[in-house]
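From: lab user (bench 3)
To: helpdesk
Subject: output format question, protein + heme C

Hello, I'm new to running complex predictions and I'm not sure whether the block I got back is the full result or only part of it. Here's what I submitted:
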Amino acid sequence: MRTVNTVLVLGLLLFTGQAFAASADVDWDMEPMDPDLGDMPSLQRGAALFTNFCMGCHSLKFQRYERTADDIGIPHDVALRNLVLSGQQIGALMETAMPPAQAKNWFGAPPPDLTMVARVRGPEWIYNMLKTFYMDESRPFGVNNKVFENIGMPHALITLQGTPTEVCEGAKVVDILDGETGVLDPDGEVIVEPDCSEIAVDGSGLYDEDEYDQAIYDIANFLYYMGDPSRAERESLGWWVLGFLLVLFVISSFLNREYWRAIH
Ligand code: HEC
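Helpdesk reply: Thanks, we reran it on our side. This is the complete output you should expect:
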C-alpha cells in the first residue's frame, strides 16, 4: 500500500508540474526558451538591459548588486558605473527608484518585485511575454499582450523592437453578426473569432528581429538566474560530488576484492 501511495504522490508531483506549464490559455504558440546559466555574456547583457529598461518600475529587492556582479562576472567598478543607481553602494539591495506612492497612483498597484518571477512564471513565459506586445488603442498604455492578456504595463522595449502590430487572418469587418466583430477568410466565409496569432514589427526599432530575440532571451535568462542565484554553483558542485562518489566506488570495489581474496 505504501509503495502504491508513493508512486501516486510522485506521479501527481510530476503531473502538476506539467499542468502548470501547459495551462497558459493563450492564442500564441509559446516559443521555447532554454536558459543557460553558463553563458556569462548573456547574463551580463540581461543585467544591463534589466537595469536600463525595467528597474525604473520593478525592483529585485531580495538581491544585492554585489552578489549579482560577483555571480555573473561583472567587476565592481563596472557594476558601480553601469548597474547601480546613482548615489547607492554596491552592497545595496536592487530596489527601484520609483516611489511606491506614485507607482500606486500610476498603475493602481506598484509594479511587482521580479526577484522570484522566473520561479513563478518560468523563463519561457517571460521570454514570450516580452515578445508578444502589440498595439491596442483600447488599453490604457496603448498595448496589449498575447501571453498576459490586458497587461497593465507599457511595452518597455518598444524603442528596441519597433512598433508591433497584430496580424489577423482575412480582412477586418465590423458588425457582421448582430454587432459582433469578426474577419472574412479568403473564401469570404465569416470567422467570428478572428485568428490573430501573429505579430508583425514595422522595422522602426533599434534592433532587428534576431537582435531583439537575443535581448529578450538575455533578460529572461538573467531573471532565471535571479530566481535562484545559487543554482549554477550547486550544479557544478553536483558534478564534483558525483566524481567523488565515483572515485570512492572504485577504491571500495578494490577493497572489496581484497577482503574476499583472503576468504576464498
Ligand atoms: C513603466 C513601468 C514598467 C516598466 C518600465 C516595466 N514594467 Fe513590468 N510591469 C509593470 C506593471 C505595472 C506590472 C503589473 C501588470 C499587471 O499586473 O497587469 C508589470 C508586470 C510585469 C511582469 C509580470 C509579473 C507577474 O508575474 O505578474 C513581468 C514579468 C514584467 N513586468 C517584466 C518586465 C520587464 C522584463 C521589464 C523591462 C524590459 C519591465 N517589466 C518594465 C510596470 C513596468
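A quick orientation on your result: Residues 53-54, 56-58, 107, 111-112, 114, 117, 120-121, 126, 129, 151-154, 156-157, 219 surround heme C (CB under 6 Å). Let us know if anything else is unclear.
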